[in-house]
């Protein structure tokens, strides 16, 4: 899984990031992240992009991480 991303690092990310990248910021494995997203239980809203791609708004992720501190 690697080292979780810091809040400062997340703030530098583009407006939309893949669920797998958001999972890193949340300290989740890719498998857990995609399972939660499929069940509608991912901690922040997930957007279905083109095809099967799923994205997360970085602003939503930052708000969640700030509230969790």
Features:
69 residues; alpha+beta; Arc Repressor Mutant, subunit A; 4 helices; 3 strands
- The general outline is globular
Give the CATH architecture. Answer: Orthogonal Bundle
Per DSSP, the total helix count is 4
In CATH's first tier, which class applies? Mainly Alpha
Gyration radius, to the nearest Å?
A: 11 Å
Mean pLDDT: 94
Task: Describe the structure in brief.
With 69 residues, this protein is α+β, with helices and mostly antiparallel strands.
Describe this structure in words.
- The protein is α+β, with helices and mostly antiparallel strands and 69 residues long.
- It has a single domain, classed as Arc Repressor Mutant, subunit A, CATH 1.10.10.
- 45% of the residues lie in helices and 14% in strands.
- It has 4 helices and 3 strands.
- It has a 3-stranded antiparallel β-sheet.
- Helix 2 packs across helix 3.
- The chain starts with 6 loop residues before the first helix and ends with a helix.
- The mean pLDDT is 94.
Describe the protein's topology.
Layout: H1 7-10, E1 16-18, H2 19-26, H3 30-38, E2 46-48, E3 54-57, H4 58-67
Antiparallel strand pairs: 1-3, 2-3
């Amino acid at each position: 899984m690697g080292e979780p991303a810091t809040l400062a690092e997340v703030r530098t990310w583009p407006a939309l990031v893949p669920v797998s990248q958001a999972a890193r910021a949340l300290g989740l494995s890719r498998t857990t992240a995609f399972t939660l997203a499929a069940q509608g239980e991912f901690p922040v809203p997930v957007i279905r992009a083109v095809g099967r791609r799923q994205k997360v708004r970085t602003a939503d992720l930052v708000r969640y991480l700030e509230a969790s501190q």
